[in-house]
Amino acid sequence: MEELQKALNETSLTISTLPEKGRCLFTTRDFSPGEVIISENPYVSVPNKNKESPQSKCEWCFSSTNLKKCSACHVVWYCSSKCQKSDWKLHSAECGALSKVDKERLKSLTPSLRLMVKLCMRRKLEIQKIIPTSATESYKYVEALVSHMSDIDEKQMLLYAQMANLVNLILQWPDSQINIKEIAENFSKLACNAHTICDGELRPLGTGLYPVVSIINHSCLPNSVLVFEGRLAVVRAMQHIPKGTEVLISYVDIAGSTITRKKTLKEQYYFSCACPRCIELGQSDDIRESAILEGYRCKDSKCDGFLLRDSDNKGFICQQCGLLRDKEEITNISKEVKSISEKASLSLSSGHKTEAVEAYKMIEGLQLQLYQPFSINLMRTRETLIKIFMELQGWREALSYCRLTIPVYERVYPRSHPLVGLQYYTCGKFEWLLGDTEAAVRSLTIALDILRVTHGTKTPFMMELASKLEEARAEALYMLRSQD
Ligand SMILES: [Zn+2]
Ligand SMILES: [Zn+2]
Ligand SMILES: [Zn+2]
Ligand SMILES: [Zn+2]
User: Fold this and answer.
1) For 472, what's the count of Cα atoms within 13 Å in the CB-facing half-sphere?
2) Do residues 441 and 476 touch, judged by C-beta distance below 8 A?
3) CA 115 – ligand 2 centroid, Å
4) Residues sharing a CB contact under 8 Å with residue 150, sequence separation 6 or more, in sequence order
5) pLDDT tens digits in sequence order for the chain, 484 residues long
6) Are 432 and 424 in contact (CB under 8 A)?
7) Cα(480)–Cα(484) distance, integer angstroms
């Protein structure tokens, strides 16, 4: 760890250990908004392939263009010989093992199994000195990660043991070289430490283990943000961070009430969040905000009061006008939403998009009767509608839903959060497609202001955004001149 501490000191960071939190990363100088605090290549990583992201990806850089399959194992793809070469030391070992696996078993080779196979391989190659270690890259930093073995229930434990056996079957190493218990423990480490690698628009591409970035703790009010540039994890300051401050990112989507966030963090990461937002739990401001984000609206459609459960448990009382909203009425609408939701997602998964649109619009209508205008559930429904309309090229409808989500985004995320910037970017793209150049310039300007902090300025994604904005500005100017 001394080596790592020294390397971090050189980049104005230091690791401290606090009894209640474990390892923490602190700054040793001021960082300004948009500045890179730390970047790290994955110790091991693997691309994903699922319903949301069905295309194959380069094993090294996650690109999905110009791919060629590895001719020996027929499992991994590369976009270039450069990527293949960079991955070769690790893949040549993995390739040998994968080539021996029979076709049926290959089908059940999930990304998490592959990630574990690669982790075992990399460890072995380090011991054999085929892959060198460095101050920031070594298996000992994987060993230092928390595993939460004592918090895991028996069912989960059994699953990890089964997965460890599958890894063993793929590796086919002699018994002396394999430790099933350690592999099972490593699965639990991956569950709370592996990061989802995303593209610039935060769409998932794969999974990676970044043992140094993993030292950074969570806050529901983070001062930093983690984004990916290809395989590289980059943590940037979202705001001014003074010297001696803990670097904090968010592990989960921070849209939601304190109870919801705390529950998600407890279930996924086994800790009880004590961030400045979470310690407000139960205080009047927090109760109000939770009721606005996840609670019901007043029976009187003109009243914008928030509702709390009444003491007799008959229903929910408006805190502004005192009207009671009957529990039964709420249950009935909720049931209807649930039954339409099932049909809606079925239509969507079977490709009946127009049917799905109708169903989601009905859900939106019911949720408007049920929830507050800033409701997270309502926002999620609208996000789904945006996605479907984009697929149907219904830009006008997509734009109007996009505009409806922005006030909610601005309420639930910090001002310079990437999701806020991306939503403005989406809005700007629709406005541009619909010929509303002036609006597009406004939206893209806000998007660029936010995303240059979270994403930097030099990635292809950001250059595209900047050039779109320039084009829109030029056109707006041209239109203005031709009006004169
Ligand atoms: Zn590549
Ligand atoms: Zn191969
Ligand atoms: Zn929190
Ligand atoms: Zn009311």
Assistant:
1) 26
2) yes
3) 15
4) none
5) 789 999 999 999 999 999 888 999 999 999 999 999 999 999 999 999 887 788 899 999 999 999 999 999 999 999 999 999 999 999 999 999 999 988 888 888 899 999 999 999 999 999 999 999 999 999 999 999 988 888 888 898 899 999 999 999 899 888 888 888 889 999 999 999 999 999 999 999 999 999 999 999 999 999 999 999 999 999 999 999 999 999 999 999 999 999 999 999 999 999 999 999 999 999 999 999 999 999 999 999 999 999 999 988 889 999 999 999 999 999 999 999 999 999 999 999 999 999 999 999 999 999 999 999 999 999 999 999 999 999 999 999 999 999 999 999 999 999 889 999 999 999 999 999 999 999 999 999 999 999 999 999 999 999 999 999 999 999 988 888 887 7
6) no
7) 7
Q: Which ligand is nearest to the CA of 81?
A: 1
Residue 298's nearest CA partner among 208, 399, 371, 212 is 371
Q: Which helix (H) or strand (E) holds 68?
A: strand 68-69
Alpha helices in 270-326 (DSSP H): 284-294
Question: Which amino acid is residue 400, in one-letter code?
Answer: S
Length of the chain: 484
DSSP letters for 282-298: TSHHHHHHHHHHHSBBP
Could you say which ligand is closest to the alpha carbon of residue 250?
3
Q: Which token pair is 388?
A: 């479907």
CA 222 to centroid of ligand 3, rounded, Å: 9
Residue type for position 134: S
The Å distance, Cα 220 to ligand 3 centre, comes to 4
Q: What is the DSSP string of 342-398?
A: HHHHHHHHTT-HHHHHHHHHHHHHHHHHHB-TT-HHHHHHHHHHHHHHHHTT-HHHH
Write down the pTM of the prediction: 0.93
